[in-house]
Amino acid sequence: MAGILYIVATPIGNLGDMTGRAIDTLKSVDIVLTEDTRVTAKLLMHYGIDTHTLSYHQQSNDYKKAEILKKLLDGQNMALVTDAGTPGISDPGNELVDFILSNSSEVKVIPIPGPSSLSAALSVCGFNVSNFLFIGFWPKKKISKTVKLVKDSGVAVSFFESPYRIVKTLDVLIKEFGEEKRIFVGQELTKMYERSLRGTLKEVRESLTGEQKEAGRVRGEIVCVLEA
């Protein structure tokens, strides 16, 4: 009988957000597939989990995916985790799931839902997100294509951005949508230096520029929601 691949969400910062079901799953499986074994080792140690880990990340090729599939077909149960949050969202986990489901009808893929910076930001932004567009990371190239997609969508748009590029991206948004367009920016959500900024593009840019000058950089992991 084939094994099960569990897609397990882990905390995006605060370890208290780990669900009991996620802990039980990581304890019960034969292997934990992890983006970075060093990062996951800290999480497993915190919860007293000694399950064997196996690396799976963006550079993993089809040979590695086939190796994982073979273990599943041999009856081993596995859990896939990312460094933080829910695997498969702007994450190579979706490629593994596609490979598994495309090459076997025997393996079950079961989600163990939990923390996600995307849903966290949508829940506190205060904008109408009954419908929204998620575009992953704001692109470094072909920006005009993304801007057109955002303009044509007519709904709130959520995206991830690097702290090193967020001010530049806000400049693009101001140019394309006007400085009075509202945006929510979540920094380091659930972590020690968590901060939420909500206001016009001009106001948020000024705040982040001030942080950049004072601290020498814009802090941490960033998720944004641009109002429709």
Descriptive overview:
The chain has 228 residues and is α/β, with parallel strands linked by helices. The protein has 2 domains: 4-112, Tetrapyrrole methylase, N-terminal domain (Cobalt-precorrin-4 Transmethylase, domain 1), CATH 3.40.1010.10; 117-226, Tetrapyrrole methylase, C-terminal domain (Methyltransferase, Cobalt-precorrin-4 Transmethylase, Domain 2, 2-Layer Sandwich), CATH 3.30.950.10. It is built from 8 helices and 10 strands. It has helices at residues 20-28, 37-46, 62-73, 93-103, 117-124, 143-153, 166-177, 201-215; strands spanning 4-8, 31-34, 52-55, 78-81, 108-112, 132-137, 156-161, 182-187, 195-200, 222-226. A 5-stranded parallel beta sheet has the order 3-2-4-1-5, sandwiched between helices. It has a 5-stranded mixed beta sheet with strand order 6-7-10-8-9, sandwiched between helices. α7 packs antiparallel against α8 (201-215). The longest helix is centred in the last third of the chain and has 15 residues, at 201-215. It is elongated and about 60 Å long. The mean pLDDT is 95.
